[in-house]
Write a structure and sequence with these properties.
elongated, 5 strands, mainly alpha, Rossmann fold, two-stranded parallel ribbon, 3-stranded parallel beta sheet
């Protein structure tokens, strides 16, 4: 399973361990490090965060992922021929990190856990989205 950045932040703030079957996409790593700097996290939270990076597999952005990335981006913008967004759903520009996170979940056929609505439309594309409340 994959946790979006917001859920990992919650675990870091509470010093809670993540479930044992997590992989962390590299864009989440970047977002977490940026959040830590901008939020002026103390040394203990930064150490806890870095320990997560050592405990769980980090997924690099590779050329193998780029076809799915391109398709998800086109689908989101209602430009993927033969696989349109459902009727009544408007096209959207996803953030590039969110595109990579969703791409990783789709590539590995894993659940994506998030509190965001940014991924909701991708359920129709096959994303296994689990929504959480913070």
């Amino acid at each position: 399973m994959i946790f979006d950045t917001n859920l990992i932040i919650k675990h870091i703030r509470k010093s809670q361990n993540l479930p044992s079957r997590i992989i962390i996409p590299m864009p989440v790593v970047g977002e977490l490090k940026a959040f830590a700097i901008k939020s002026d996290w103390g040394i203990q939270k930064v150490i806890f965060m870095n320990n997560l990076f050592n405990l769980f597999p980090l997924v690099e952005i590779t050329e193998e992922l780029t076809d799915i990335y391109a398709q998800v981006d086109a689908y989101s913008q209602r430009k993927l021929e033969g696989n349109p967004l459902p009727l009544g759903m408007s096209a959207r520009n996803m953030g590039k990190n969110d595109l990579w996170i969703a791409t990783t979940a789709l590539y590995f056929d894993m659940e994506l856990h998030s509190t965001d609505n940014d991924f909701d439309h991708l359920i129709h594309y096959g994303l296994k989205l689990i929504k959480h409340r913070i």
